[in-house]
Amino acid sequence: MLKLLIDKLENENRLTKEEFAILIDNATEEDRQYLFSKARKIKERYFGNKIYIRGLIEFTNYCKNDCYYCGIRRSNKEAERYRLTKDDILSCCETGYSLGFRTFVLQGGEDPYFNDERMTDIVSSIKERYSDCALTLSLGERSYESYKALYEAGADRYLLRHETADSGHYSKLHPEEMLLSTRKEALYALKEIGYQVGTGFMVGSPYQTTEHICTDLEFIADFKPHMVGIGPFIPHHNTPFKDFKAGSVELTLLLIGIIRLMLPCCLIPATTALGTLAATGREMGVLAGANVVMPNLSPSTVRNKYLLYDNKICTGDEAAECRMCLERRMNSIGSVIAVDRGDSPLVTSSI
Ligand code: 5AD
Ligand code: FES
């Protein structure tokens, strides 16, 4: 029984790398349930039974990067590329607002077309019309000046997964022009500027070992992000990783529970990737300690083009359908969807 380790994690909010490894490699079903019930209790202390919804707008699938795992990498010539216009994006927000979304997430590949001039214009237009909403950006690596300009234009939060905190593993997932050090610098810059910052990694990415995951957990414990997104790796048929197997749902859930104990008031999404690998993946994610879901607000015409991995769910559904579907799913496990900005308690109070 690893109860003592789980108690230690709860009390001290971290373990040594060796202890993390023991927990990851040896947790029994009983240990998992013990961890998840603690994770739920901690979550309830800060958030009650509220689950925050973020409206995801996938506004461009052009990308100058070539990450080996990703379906919209520049070398995937079969990806049908699209860009939403500013008006398209604003109309997604309008639909989202009427469905009760108070956070919009603009996510895209690293698309040079969306330079600072275009991006700050979009950000300030959204914030002008929807001043009671939070705006999250997920645009990959940009310069300090660019992050600052976007923040000054009104962006509140930024999602940038570190993908793996081991530099050797990082170089197995990315071409050589991409470096873990650059990614980490970007994350520290975002925090310094004042964003609420999210990071995270894929579970079961090719070549990942338990030790790598322990390094990820250490990085997260040190960096103390406001949000942590983790989801299983899922192969995409047009990438160099097409023949690798998908990550494990069980391990993803265990890690959600561990991260909840490490960062009690963190915002943790039950990801679409988790929902893709298991029919009730997102519900299980919430029961393991997650407290955010991010349904898609992208127009149905482009939904099936933003494909980072195969078999992605919800690509044929309208925004309203996903919103209602998730409401039902959350209610079925005793949670309710919250209609407010859902800031991290770290920034709304002195916790
Ligand atoms: N499987 C699962 N997640 C993926 N991502 C990219 N490609 C895949 C894949 N094949 C994740 C990355 C990225 C986020 C937007 O999606 O972690 O940061
Ligand atoms: Fe999209 Fe269920 S969340 S259809």
Structural write-up:
The chain is of the alpha/beta class and 351 residues long. Helix content is 46%, strand content 12%. It is built from 15 helices and nine strands. It has helices at 3-12, 17-26, 29-47, 86-98, 116-129, 144-152, 167-173, 180-193, 210-223, 249-262, 272-277, 281-288, 300-303, 319-332, 345-348, and strands at 50-53, 55-60, 103-108, 134-138, 157-159, 196-203, 227-232, 292-293, 336-338. The protein has a six-stranded parallel beta sheet with strand order 2-3-4-5-6-7. Helix 10 (249-262) packs parallel to helix 12 (281-288). The chain is globular. The two termini are 32 Å apart. 46% of the residues are buried. The model has no long low-confidence stretch (mean pLDDT 96).
Throw out a few tags for this protein.
351 residues, single chain, 9 strands, binds FE2/S2 (inorganic) cluster, alpha/beta, 3-stranded parallel β-sheet, 46% helix, 6-stranded parallel β-sheet, binds 5'-deoxyadenosine
